Amino acid sequence: MKKDLSDYRKSYTKSALLESEVSDNPMELFQKWFYEIEKSGTTDEPNAMTISTLGLDGYPKGRVVLLKRYTYEGFIFYSNYRSEKGKAIDEDPRVCLSFFWPGMERQVIVKGEAEKISGNMSDGYFESRPTGSKLGAIVSNQSEVIPSREILEDQLEELEKEYDGKEIPRPDYWGGYLVRPVSIEFWQGRPNRLHDRLRYTLLEDYNWKIERLAP
User: Fold this and answer.
1) Predicted local confidence at residue 213, as pLDDT
2) pTM score over 0.85
3) Choice among 106, 190, 193, 197 that is catalytic
């Protein structure tokens, strides 16, 4: 089986990324881009991002998760701490986040270190989730092998009865991570494959160095 994809081509013409037009802080540029993506309506889930970790088996692995908050400190997402990604982060907190927004011909790549956020912050977000999402976090032993889907559905049904009309507590194995960036690269598609790439690298005292990279 084979398929030749060499004729898949696209011309990138929608915008530019110039040093004279960007902030000294990459989180301010990220906020600007995120707002523009939301306003454009070109992406169903603009907060979808790929997080890559180095697994316990020695292989890197990427998977899509949802960004739930960003601040000057970094990027926050939530997960099962006992999942494959959680175990990988425990072993090596260095991760990479990648956002791809094809409708605006943009990409952002973040290198940083992940750390667990406070229990209070995780509690606050967990309480805001729909009931089904709360129960799903309890039912799923994420990344573990299971015999069938029916087992999950049966367990969910039992929990629905157990917590009917009751408060659902956040399990201690579920919560948030903050990824503190050390490098953030912004990519803007340009004609003739001469794309714009600006990389911010963290220096001491929370200052950032801005460099242009060849496309």
Assistant:
1) 98
2) yes
3) 193
